[in-house]
Structure prediction request, 246 residues.
Amino acid sequence: MESEPVPRVPAPARRGVLHVLGDLLFPPGPGGAGNPHGALPPLLIVLTFVSGLVDAVGFLGLDHVFVANMTGNVAFLGFALAGYGALSAGASALALGAFLAGALIAGRLRRRERPAGPAGPLVAVQAALVGAALATREGGGGPLAVIALLALGMGLQNGVVHRLAVPDLTTTVVTRALAGLAVDRWGPASVRRLVTVVTLLAGALTGGALTLGHGPRPALVLALVLLLAVALAAARAAGPRPDPAA
Prediction:
Protein backbone atom coordinates (compact mmCIF):
# COMPACT_ATOMS: atom_id res chain seq x y z
CA MET A 1 0.00 0.00 0.00
CA GLU A 2 1.47 3.29 -1.13
CA SER A 3 1.86 6.06 1.40
CA GLU A 4 0.19 9.36 0.74
CA PRO A 5 2.53 12.13 -0.42
CA VAL A 6 3.53 14.60 2.26
CA PRO A 7 2.25 18.06 1.37
CA ARG A 8 5.00 20.57 0.72
CA VAL A 9 5.04 23.58 2.99
CA PRO A 10 5.67 26.74 0.97
CA ALA A 11 8.82 28.63 1.88
CA PRO A 12 8.25 31.95 3.57
CA ALA A 13 8.31 34.94 1.21
CA ARG A 14 11.64 36.71 1.04
CA ARG A 15 11.52 40.24 2.37
CA GLY A 16 13.45 42.88 0.52
CA VAL A 17 15.80 45.45 2.00
CA LEU A 18 13.12 48.15 1.93
CA HIS A 19 10.75 46.03 4.02
CA VAL A 20 13.53 45.26 6.49
CA LEU A 21 14.29 48.98 6.85
CA GLY A 22 10.60 49.69 7.26
CA ASP A 23 10.45 47.14 10.07
CA LEU A 24 13.29 48.98 11.83
CA LEU A 25 11.31 52.22 11.73
CA PHE A 26 8.06 50.51 12.77
CA PRO A 27 9.03 47.65 15.11
CA PRO A 28 6.36 45.35 16.58
CA GLY A 29 4.32 46.97 19.33
CA PRO A 30 3.13 45.50 22.65
CA GLY A 31 0.39 43.60 20.84
CA GLY A 32 2.84 42.05 18.40
CA ALA A 33 1.56 44.01 15.40
CA GLY A 34 4.36 44.67 12.96
CA ASN A 35 5.05 47.31 10.32
CA PRO A 36 1.78 48.08 8.49
CA HIS A 37 3.43 50.33 5.88
CA GLY A 38 5.62 47.83 4.06
CA ALA A 39 8.39 49.44 2.00
CA LEU A 40 7.01 52.98 2.26
CA PRO A 41 8.95 54.30 5.31
CA PRO A 42 12.47 54.13 3.76
CA LEU A 43 11.14 55.60 0.52
CA LEU A 44 9.71 58.55 2.46
CA ILE A 45 13.10 59.04 4.08
CA VAL A 46 14.63 59.38 0.60
CA LEU A 47 11.94 61.93 -0.31
CA THR A 48 12.86 63.85 2.84
CA PHE A 49 16.45 64.04 1.60
CA VAL A 50 15.15 65.31 -1.77
CA SER A 51 13.24 68.06 0.07
CA GLY A 52 16.49 69.33 1.56
CA LEU A 53 18.19 69.18 -1.85
CA VAL A 54 15.61 71.22 -3.72
CA ASP A 55 15.20 73.77 -0.93
CA ALA A 56 18.96 74.37 -1.07
CA VAL A 57 18.63 74.97 -4.81
CA GLY A 58 15.66 77.29 -4.32
CA PHE A 59 17.21 79.43 -1.62
CA LEU A 60 20.87 79.45 -2.66
CA GLY A 61 20.64 79.05 -6.42
CA LEU A 62 17.43 80.79 -7.47
CA ASP A 63 15.61 83.66 -5.78
CA HIS A 64 15.97 83.07 -2.01
CA VAL A 65 12.77 81.06 -1.86
CA PHE A 66 11.80 77.66 -0.52
CA VAL A 67 10.09 75.21 -2.86
CA ALA A 68 9.45 72.43 -0.31
CA ASN A 69 9.06 73.93 3.18
CA MET A 70 6.11 76.26 2.87
CA THR A 71 6.25 77.37 6.51
CA GLY A 72 9.45 79.25 5.74
CA ASN A 73 7.97 80.53 2.50
CA VAL A 74 5.01 82.10 4.27
CA ALA A 75 7.45 83.88 6.59
CA PHE A 76 9.57 84.97 3.60
CA LEU A 77 6.48 86.39 1.94
CA GLY A 78 5.73 88.42 5.07
CA PHE A 79 9.33 89.69 5.25
CA ALA A 80 9.25 90.68 1.57
CA LEU A 81 5.93 92.50 1.93
CA ALA A 82 7.39 94.33 4.93
CA GLY A 83 10.08 95.72 2.65
CA TYR A 84 13.07 93.38 3.03
CA GLY A 85 14.72 93.76 -0.36
CA ALA A 86 16.73 90.53 -0.35
CA LEU A 87 13.50 88.52 -0.67
CA SER A 88 10.99 88.53 -3.52
CA ALA A 89 7.29 88.61 -2.67
CA GLY A 90 6.48 87.49 -6.20
CA ALA A 91 8.78 84.47 -6.04
CA SER A 92 7.44 83.40 -2.64
CA ALA A 93 3.84 83.81 -3.76
CA LEU A 94 4.56 81.85 -6.95
CA ALA A 95 6.12 79.00 -4.97
CA LEU A 96 3.13 78.90 -2.62
CA GLY A 97 0.64 78.85 -5.49
CA ALA A 98 2.49 76.16 -7.44
CA PHE A 99 2.87 74.03 -4.31
CA LEU A 100 -0.85 74.24 -3.57
CA ALA A 101 -1.64 73.36 -7.19
CA GLY A 102 0.57 70.26 -7.00
CA ALA A 103 -0.99 69.15 -3.72
CA LEU A 104 -4.48 69.70 -5.15
CA ILE A 105 -3.66 67.57 -8.22
CA ALA A 106 -2.24 64.79 -6.05
CA GLY A 107 -5.31 64.83 -3.81
CA ARG A 108 -7.74 64.67 -6.73
CA LEU A 109 -5.89 61.82 -8.45
CA ARG A 110 -5.42 59.72 -5.31
CA ARG A 111 -9.08 59.93 -4.30
CA ARG A 112 -9.69 57.34 -7.01
CA GLU A 113 -7.43 54.88 -5.18
CA ARG A 114 -7.28 53.60 -1.64
CA PRO A 115 -5.24 56.00 0.56
CA ALA A 116 -2.21 53.72 0.69
CA GLY A 117 -2.34 52.86 -3.02
CA PRO A 118 0.66 52.91 -5.33
CA ALA A 119 2.63 56.18 -5.07
CA GLY A 120 5.10 55.36 -7.84
CA PRO A 121 3.28 57.09 -10.74
CA LEU A 122 2.94 60.42 -8.95
CA VAL A 123 6.58 60.35 -7.82
CA ALA A 124 7.48 59.68 -11.45
CA VAL A 125 5.54 62.80 -12.43
CA GLN A 126 7.45 64.70 -9.75
CA ALA A 127 10.70 63.43 -11.27
CA ALA A 128 9.54 64.67 -14.67
CA LEU A 129 8.88 68.12 -13.18
CA VAL A 130 12.36 68.24 -11.64
CA GLY A 131 13.77 67.18 -15.00
CA ALA A 132 11.79 69.97 -16.68
CA ALA A 133 13.14 72.45 -14.12
CA LEU A 134 16.68 71.31 -14.87
CA ALA A 135 16.11 71.57 -18.62
CA THR A 136 14.53 75.02 -18.21
CA ARG A 137 17.49 76.32 -16.26
CA GLU A 138 20.05 74.79 -18.64
CA GLY A 139 18.13 76.28 -21.57
CA GLY A 140 18.39 79.78 -20.13
CA GLY A 141 14.93 80.01 -18.58
CA GLY A 142 14.36 82.46 -15.79
CA PRO A 143 14.35 81.50 -12.11
CA LEU A 144 10.59 81.96 -11.75
CA ALA A 145 9.85 79.14 -14.20
CA VAL A 146 12.26 76.84 -12.35
CA ILE A 147 10.72 77.78 -9.00
CA ALA A 148 7.22 77.05 -10.31
CA LEU A 149 8.20 73.61 -11.63
CA LEU A 150 10.04 72.59 -8.46
CA ALA A 151 7.28 73.84 -6.15
CA LEU A 152 4.65 72.07 -8.26
CA GLY A 153 6.61 68.84 -7.88
CA MET A 154 6.99 69.29 -4.15
CA GLY A 155 3.27 69.93 -3.87
CA LEU A 156 2.65 66.61 -5.60
CA GLN A 157 5.04 64.90 -3.17
CA ASN A 158 3.35 66.40 -0.13
CA GLY A 159 -0.10 65.57 -1.45
CA VAL A 160 0.91 61.93 -1.83
CA VAL A 161 2.54 61.83 1.61
CA HIS A 162 -0.51 63.43 3.21
CA ARG A 163 -2.77 60.74 1.76
CA LEU A 164 -0.40 57.94 2.76
CA ALA A 165 -0.45 59.25 6.37
CA VAL A 166 2.63 57.35 7.57
CA PRO A 167 3.23 58.58 11.15
CA ASP A 168 6.17 60.97 11.72
CA LEU A 169 7.34 60.83 8.08
CA THR A 170 6.02 64.00 6.44
CA THR A 171 9.16 64.52 4.25
CA THR A 172 9.21 68.31 4.79
CA VAL A 173 7.95 69.54 8.18
CA VAL A 174 10.34 69.04 11.09
CA THR A 175 8.91 71.56 13.57
CA ARG A 176 6.46 69.04 15.00
CA ALA A 177 9.13 66.33 14.89
CA LEU A 178 11.46 68.47 17.01
CA ALA A 179 8.66 69.26 19.46
CA GLY A 180 7.79 65.57 19.72
CA LEU A 181 11.43 64.69 20.41
CA ALA A 182 11.47 67.14 23.30
CA VAL A 183 8.05 66.35 24.77
CA ASP A 184 7.40 62.64 24.32
CA ARG A 185 9.17 59.71 25.94
CA TRP A 186 11.83 58.01 23.85
CA GLY A 187 10.47 55.24 21.67
CA PRO A 188 10.06 54.13 18.04
CA ALA A 189 8.32 57.41 17.14
CA SER A 190 11.30 59.32 18.51
CA VAL A 191 13.61 57.33 16.25
CA ARG A 192 11.50 58.17 13.20
CA ARG A 193 11.41 61.85 14.12
CA LEU A 194 15.16 61.97 14.66
CA VAL A 195 15.79 60.22 11.34
CA THR A 196 13.52 62.74 9.61
CA VAL A 197 15.34 65.75 11.08
CA VAL A 198 18.79 64.35 10.35
CA THR A 199 17.82 63.37 6.80
CA LEU A 200 16.43 66.80 5.97
CA LEU A 201 19.58 68.37 7.39
CA ALA A 202 21.72 66.01 5.30
CA GLY A 203 19.76 66.86 2.17
CA ALA A 204 20.11 70.59 2.80
CA LEU A 205 23.82 70.20 3.55
CA THR A 206 24.41 68.18 0.40
CA GLY A 207 22.33 70.49 -1.76
CA GLY A 208 23.97 73.55 -0.26
CA ALA A 209 27.49 72.23 -0.83
CA LEU A 210 26.69 71.26 -4.43
CA THR A 211 24.90 74.52 -5.23
CA LEU A 212 27.51 76.79 -3.66
CA GLY A 213 30.38 74.85 -5.22
CA HIS A 214 29.01 73.98 -8.65
CA GLY A 215 25.66 75.68 -9.15
CA PRO A 216 22.17 74.17 -9.03
CA ARG A 217 22.74 71.57 -11.77
CA PRO A 218 24.38 68.78 -9.70
CA ALA A 219 21.80 69.05 -6.89
CA LEU A 220 18.91 68.90 -9.37
CA VAL A 221 20.47 65.92 -11.16
CA LEU A 222 20.85 64.10 -7.83
CA ALA A 223 17.24 64.91 -6.90
CA LEU A 224 16.08 63.60 -10.29
CA VAL A 225 18.00 60.33 -9.89
CA LEU A 226 16.65 59.77 -6.36
CA LEU A 227 13.07 60.45 -7.43
CA LEU A 228 13.32 58.02 -10.32
CA ALA A 229 14.71 55.40 -7.94
CA VAL A 230 11.84 55.99 -5.48
CA ALA A 231 9.24 55.79 -8.26
CA LEU A 232 10.68 52.49 -9.49
CA ALA A 233 10.99 51.03 -5.99
CA ALA A 234 7.44 52.09 -5.08
CA ALA A 235 6.05 50.51 -8.25
CA ARG A 236 7.92 47.26 -7.60
CA ALA A 237 6.87 47.18 -3.95
CA ALA A 238 3.23 47.71 -4.87
CA GLY A 239 3.28 44.69 -7.17
CA PRO A 240 0.69 43.97 -9.83
CA ARG A 241 -2.81 45.30 -9.31
CA PRO A 242 -5.53 42.71 -8.74
CA ASP A 243 -7.85 41.93 -11.63
CA PRO A 244 -11.28 43.46 -10.83
CA ALA A 245 -12.96 40.63 -12.77
CA ALA A 246 -11.38 38.10 -10.44
User: Anything to note?
Assistant: The chain has nine helices and no strands. The chain has a mean pLDDT of 87. The domain at 39-237 is CATH 1.20.1250 (Growth Hormone; Chain: A;).
